Amino acid sequence: MSGGDGQAFAQTPAAPYYAVIFTSLRTDTDDGYGDTAESMVDLARTQPGFLGVESARGTDGLGITVSYWESEAAILAWKRQGEHSLARARGRADWYSAFEVRIARVERAYGFSREGEPA
């Protein structure tokens, strides 16, 4: 899972805020996927309204990435960002056999962490 340092949960503010849930199934083609995915996270971090990201991928190729945003306007601006648009096109052409994008408003959020362990 990737948050701020690659191993942490995203540190989001008090609700409400928005989540973009990207569920994908990878093809066998790698061809720069890892580098592009990493650069997209780095780029997202520079976007106004970005709050954080968490991501996981199974050995079967199924992955879920959840990015958190302050507003729907921030999400739309990220969708329209030029480098992100190019990466999405490359994903459709080479890296994904299928994907779904879901956008949700987070109304409540809570968690648990053992003392001394990061959430």
Automatic annotation (TrEMBL):
Transmembrane segments: none annotated. This is Polysaccharide biosynthesis protein. Pfam families: ABM. It comes from Pseudomonas solani. It comes from the Bacteria. Residues 16-88 form the ABM domain.
